[in-house]
């Protein structure tokens, strides 16, 4: 009599087990495809010279593509100031209508008003990169919580005068760019330190806009990216 070999499984059983495993396992790709907000894991590397709004948007699109959400139209949360006959552009007007969720599915804000109100859900634990990773914040080494925005707390552009956008995101030397704190923490217990989009201007020995300048105050040339469609 031939002994039954328990190590040999029928093809149907193997397929059933494989199908169950696929259904039971969480789909990182599926989560990323639903992502509509992230903080860039890296900047272009030229300080606040992002190549203007177009270059910043391209950085968002490139990282979203790598994260599995490239089918959407991505925009960097950045304002520009009126210059050379061109009007100012408000960050809040560039990012669509919402709602927005991070790579893990957590809702950041349901609409533009909610995003700029006191009840938004943007914290260190939810302001994740396109990879679903937490961005280093206050107390971490290195601190990378300064996110370029060039914006006032309500998401609008600053008036002409003092540079708040490193020459509308074209300078890596002289100028200044307003940043927000992704972890909502700073050196003081005040509203600017807790602001996600309007904490303080950049500064440093190179003039305020270089990569080294951004790093010196706790940044790395990172951006907020929102799916606008």
Defining key terms:
two-stranded antiparallel sheet; 7 helices; 6-stranded mixed sheet; disordered N terminus; 229 residues; globular; alpha+beta
Residues in helix, %: 10-25%
Straight-line N-to-C gap: 68 Å
Average the pLDDT over all residues and give the rounded result.
89
Give the DSSP E fraction (strand runs of 2 or more residues).
Answer: 5-15%
What is the H/E string? HHEHEEEHEHEHEHE
Tell me, what's the shape? globular
By secondary-structure content and strand pairing, the structural class works out as alpha+beta
Q: Using the CA coordinates, give the radius of gyration.
A: 22 Å
Unreliable parts: 1-30
Description:
The chain has 7 helices and 8 strands, in the order ααβαβββαβαβαβαβ. With 229 residues, it is an alpha+beta fold. A hairpin with a 5-residue loop joins strand 3 and strand 4 (107-109). The longest helix has 15 residues, at 52-66. 24% of the residues lie in helices and 13% in strands. Strands 1, 2, 5, 6, 7 and 8 form a 6-stranded mixed sheet that branches. It has a two-stranded antiparallel ribbon with strand order 3-4. Mean pLDDT is 89; it is low at 1-30. The protein has helices at residues 11-24, 28-34, 52-66, 112-115, 166-169, 191-194, 211-216, and strands spanning 37-39, 74-76, 100-101, 107-109, 146-148, 178-181, 200-201, 219-227.
Strand and helix layout:
Blueprint: H1 11-24, H2 28-34, E1 37-39, H3 52-66, E2 74-76, E3 100-101, E4 107-109, H4 112-115, E5 146-148, H5 166-169, E6 178-181, H6 191-194, E7 200-201, H7 211-216, E8 219-227
Parallel strand pairs: 5-8
Antiparallel strand pairs: 1-8, 2-8, 3-4, 5-6, 6-7
